[in-house]
Write a structure and sequence with these properties.
The chain is mostly helical and 70 residues long. It has one domain. It is built from three helices and two strands, in the order αβαβα.
Length: 70
């Protein structure tokens, strides 16, 4: 079974769903969490299992999926 070990977890609240995009997500990570360089972003529903519900976030269509869940 896939599981998360180490690293960091972040929850972002108060994002305007009409303004959500891949580039908006990168901006939040770089500005608010001080990440720099190349980023690989994944997300999952809070109660979803990592081995079934882990989703990539590398283009706008993925950001729209995330907004739909949130």
């Amino acid at each position: 079974m896939l599981r998360y070990e180490g690293g960091e977890k972040h929850v972002v609240r108060g994002v305007d769903p009409d303004m959500c995009s891949y580039f908006e997500a990168l901006g939040i990570l770089k500005k608010d969490f001080k990440y720099d360089g190349q980023l690989y972003v994944w997300w999952k529903p809070k109660k979803g299992r990592m081995d079934r519900y882990l989703r990539p976030l590398f283009e706008d269509k993925h950001a729209l999926e995330l907004v739909e869940y949130a």
